[in-house]
UniProtKB/TrEMBL annotation:
<dbReference type="InterPro" id="IPR036291">
    <property type="entry name" value="NAD(P)-bd_dom_sf"/>
</dbReference>
<feature type="domain" description="Ketoreductase">
    <location>
        <begin position="17"/>
        <end position="207"/>
    </location>
</feature>
<dbReference type="Pfam" id="PF13561">
    <property type="entry name" value="adh_short_C2"/>
</dbReference>
<dbReference type="InterPro" id="IPR002347">
    <property type="entry name" value="SDR_fam"/>
</dbReference>
<dbReference type="InterPro" id="IPR057326">
    <property type="entry name" value="KR_dom"/>
</dbReference>
<comment type="similarity">
    <text>Belongs to the short-chain dehydrogenases/reductases (SDR) family.</text>
</comment>
<dbReference type="GO" id="GO:0016614">
    <property type="term" value="F:oxidoreductase activity, acting on CH-OH group of donors"/>
</dbReference>
<protein>
    <submittedName>
        <fullName>Short-chain type dehydrogenase/reductase</fullName>
    </submittedName>
</protein>
<keyword id="KW-0560">Oxidoreductase</keyword>
Amino acid sequence: MAAIPQSQSQPLPLQDRVAIVTGSSRGIGREIALHLASLGARLVINYTSDSAQAHAVAAQINANSATPRAVVVQADVSDPAQVKSLFDSAQRAFDSPLHILVNSAGVNDGAYPSVADTTVESFDRIFAVNARGAFACAREAANRLKRGGGGRIILLTTSLVAALKPGYGAYTASKAAVEAMAKILAKELKGTQITANCVAPGPIATELFFEGKTKEMVDRVVDTIPLGRLGETKDVASVIGFLATDAAEWVNGQILRVNGGFV
């Protein structure tokens, strides 16, 4: 019996679901936003300071659509009031329940100090964005994402939580806090059908990774990766895309390390 051809109008996996991607004006966040849009999602592009790049991402998503499928909202995730405003703006923009949060916003100290040499100011800045920001976004999502199916909370952390490399004390600690919180959140959301997971990239070729590194430092990192290359933003985005779909409903409270064997 011949196979029945699929209809050309078959809906995409994330058709018309609304996704907020923080830190999506560049780097991994940008690639995630573009990938979720390709799966049919409507996107809220969030940025803190780079308005031009954020609008460029939205324009790319909206280029072939009769109606806007991406909007841009400025918000500093370390400020809970701005995070609330981000979610409010998302609901107003699409007049729809919110389905997906991907928290990609993050910072590091490009000097890569030892714990002994880390300043309190650097520590506080890293924890404000990486840990407090993830908390503020996850808390808002836990209270506002659609219940009964399709709700996804996806927090980006780092494979350094497993690798524990010198020079990343505050950064790794901030992400370790997020991983613990996500596992607890998944249990607390019992009965909602909202899942909570972390994706922990390894070394990815982004501005954040290259900041403060010499070629020799980069080469040493590449040498530790069995696949012999730095990760690309698309390597992470495809995993996020899977977690956002219904196919990943049984993946909950997990840390997915996407690092080419780095650890």
